[in-house]
Structures are given as C-alpha cells and as structure tokens.
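Practice problem: predict the structure.
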Amino acid sequence: MTPPSLRERRRTAATQEILDAAERQITEHGPVALSLRAVARDLQMTVQALYHYFPSRDALVTALVTKAYDDLADAVQAAVDGAADEANLPRLVVAAEGYRGWAIAHPERFQLLYGTPLRDYAAPAEGPTTRASRRMSAIFERELFAGFSTAQLVAAEGPVLSSSLRAYLEQLPHFGMGRLPPPATALFLSAWGHLHGLVTLEVFGHTAFLDGHQDELFRRAIRNLLEDIHRRIPADVTSGRGR
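Answer:
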C-alpha cells in the first residue's frame, strides 16, 4: 500500500486534535455544551479553519458518537478477551461488566450516546454511528446465545408475539450469529433493556443509595438474567426440556 502523504498525515493529526478537544469539552461541560466555536478557540483555530475538517456541527457530533461507540465496544471486547482470568464467570457477565465499567469511567460520553438527544442532531441513516453501535450489539448477541442452535432459538420460550411484531422482528438485521428467530430477538431486546437500564441508573447517580454495593448487585442481576434466558431455551428441541 502507498504510505500516506505528508498532507494526509497532517490532516489525520489535525482531525484527531479536534476530536480530542471536543471530547474534553464534553467531559468538562456535558454534550449539550458542545460548540464548534469553543473547540476552535481551544485549539487556537478559526471556525472557518475547523470547517475544513468538519463541515458542520453534525459532522463533528457524528464522529464523536462513532468514536464513543467504538471505544465502548473495544472495552467490552477487551473484557471478553480477558475472560479466561474469570473462569467461573459467564462471558456475558464479563461483557456486561466491561460495558458498565466504561460507562462509569466516561459518564459524559455515555450520556452523548444514551442521554437526551442533542437538539437538531440526527445521525445519518445507516451511517458510521449505526455501524459502530452494531459492532457492540454483535458482541452481546454472540455471548448471550453462544452454543445454541437455530432450532433451539426458534423453540425458545418468550412472550407471545403478535403476527405483526413477529414479522417485523424477522426482518431486523443481526450482526452476531446471523439472523435470529423472533423468540430469540425478543429475549435479546429484553436482556439489553435490563442490562442497559441498570447501567444508566448507576451512571446518572440513581443508585448512590446502595453505598458501594453496586458491583455485587450488578453481577448478581446479570447472572440471574442470563440464567433466566437460558432456562427458556430448550436443551432438547424434541422434548422441549429446558437447559
């Protein structure tokens, strides 16, 4: 491959400096305070010069959201890759704790991803933010359903789905193990809502009354969640016995 030119290297370095400055602003003042003018001032640039790298506030926000999703997915994957150190801990629990750890360490960036949407910003359809979020979804999907066959997932116990919802779930894209049958998709969405809800409550300070016991309670909650979902997936699709 042809190595990048000096101009390309300079552009890459400048783009990274802008992203770093924007992340600092988010960390110090929260996502809603993000301002191209403030970022340019921090870097001693003019706003017009910054536009050469990010032509709009939306373009900068999209880059920041994409990077946050990628960093979060990296943290989750790193936790899973190190799961051998936790031989008695299911990999889904390890992934969930990696997710929680990153969110607690980066609350403002977590808020950028999952807090109140920024006014007048809409992520580009099927753009980089979508691709980045799907990468993380694939990790959790894989760890939740690893070892189960499609036949088992089809026979999973779950809520009774209306025909319209079942049809909708059947056409949703998936990014971990391939296309999931509707019962498994419903279980996955329920698990994700539970896990994410626990983390969001903690990040936004709503579990401070637990006085340092959040680690233990979170691990127990995710273990219970995993055990409940796996009980709903039959080990023998001919007899319907649970795992």
